Amino acid sequence: MILDSRLQEIAGTAIAQRVFPGCVIGVVRAKGERKILPFGHFTYEENSLQVAEDTIYDLASVTKSIPVASLALQFIAENRLNLSDKVKDFIPELQSDFGATIEDLLRYRVHGTALSKLRLRTFEEIRTHVFEHGFDGPAGEYAYQNLPAFLLGIILERVAGEILPALAEKYFFGPLSMRDTTFFPHDISRIPPTEIVDGSEIRGIVHDESARVFSRARRAVGHAGLFSTAPDLLNFLESLLRPDDGLTMSLVRGAEEGLGWQVNEPWMGKSRGEKTFGKTGFTGTSILVDKERGIGLVILSNRTYPKRPPDASSIHSEMNKLRSAIADIVFQTCA
Predict the structure, then answer these.
(1) What is the separation, in whole angstroms, between the first and last Cα of the chain?
(2) Is the CB of residue 81 less than 8 Å from the CB of residue 262?
(3) Quick one: which of 241, 276, 274 has its CA closest to 261?
C-alpha cells in the first residue's frame, strides 16, 4: 500500500503539471510478484478514455533493446553472430563502413546521417541513402543516434532470413505470452495518441518519423516502432530476473555490459546499482532491470502529446527526473 500511495502521488502530480495525460507503472519481482498501476487518461480532453493496465503504448526507442539488441545478443549466444563481425560482411552494399563491427553498432560508436532528416523520402530512398553514405568516420566514442539500430535490424533479418516481427515473435513475444506486443497494432482503440501533427493525431502508428515511413509500407525497423503493454513488458523483464538457461544468462550479461542497453544512468534513480540496465523511449516510456535487487520496472506514457517541446532536451530532462524519482520509490519500497 505504501508503494501504491507514493506512486499515485507522483503520477498525479505529473498529470496535474501536464507532463503527460496518463501513464502505467509496472513493477515485477524475481519471484513473479507484480503490481501494475494505471493513472490518468489517453489525452487531456474531457471524456477521454481512462488508462488501463493493458493500455498499449508506442515504445519508441525501447525497440532498440526489445527486441533488437536482445535478438542480437541471442544470436551471439547461438554463434550466429560475433561482436567482432564486420558490418560490411552482412551489408556489402554499405559504403564508407570504416571496418565497423557488430559491437560498434551495439555500443553506438558509429554515426552517420540522422534518419529524421530523411523522413520526407520513401523507405527505399532512406535505405539507399544510408547504404550510399555509410558512416561519417571510424568508430569512436559513444554517440547515440538511430542509425546503428537501424542497420542492426537489417543484419538480423539477413542472418536469419526472416523479418524482425517474425524473429521477435519466435524468440520472445510468443514464448513469453506477450500477446499485445507488435510492430503493427490492429486495435488502435487501446492506444493513446502520441502527438497532434498538422491537425491529425499520430495514433496506432509509430511516432518516430523515419520509422513511420517504413511502417506505412508494412516494414519494421530496428530503431523504433514497437507497441506494447505493461503486463507484456513485465513478462519480458521477469524472464531476465529469473534466467533459466544459458541463452537468457548471455542476454543479461550483455545488457549489463551495455550492449544495446543503457547501464547505470542517472534516470535509473539514485539507488541504482552499477549493473542496473534499461532503455528509454522518446514518447515517455522506459524499462529498467536491477538484477541484484531482483526488480524490474516499466513506465509507459505518451509524454509527447499533444505537442513535443521545441527543445528536445527539455522533454528528456523533465521525464528523466520523473523516471529517477519513480525508480527510487520502487527500490526503497520493494527492498
Answers:
(1) 14
(2) no
(3) 276
Residue with cell 526472416: 162
pLDDT tens-place string over residues 249-292: 899 999 999 999 999 999 999 999 999 999 999 999 999 999 99
Distance CA 298, CA 233 (A): 7
Give the model confidence (pLDDT) of 143-201 as tens digits. Answer: 999 999 999 999 999 999 999 999 999 999 999 999 999 999 999 999 999 999 999 99
- By DSSP bridging, strand 57-58 and strand 262-263 are unpaired
Find residue 101's DSSP bridge partners. 86
Q: Which residues partner with 279 through β-bridges? A: 287
Helices of type H across 99-205: 102-106, 123-133, 147-160, 164-168
Distance CA 111, CA 236 (A): 30
The Cα 87–Cα 106 span in angstroms is 11
Torsions phi, psi for 194 (to 5 deg):
-100, -25
Query: 13, 46 in Cβ contact below 8 A?
Result: no
pTM beyond cutoff 0.85: yes
Cβ-proximal residues to 253 (8 Å cutoff; 6+ apart), any chain:
none
CA distance 294 to 304: 31
The grid coordinates listed for 40 are 490518468
Residue 152: alpha-carbon gap to chain centroid: 14
C-alpha distances in Å from residue 303, one per residue of 195, 230, 283, 316? 9, 16, 5, 10
| HSE-up (13 A, CA, CB side) for residue 6 | 14
Largest CA distance in the chain: 57
Amino acid at 28: V
Contact (CB, 8 A) for 223 and 208: yes
Domains (range + CATH), the chain:
2-63+167-334 (3.40.710.10), 69-162 (1.20.58.710)
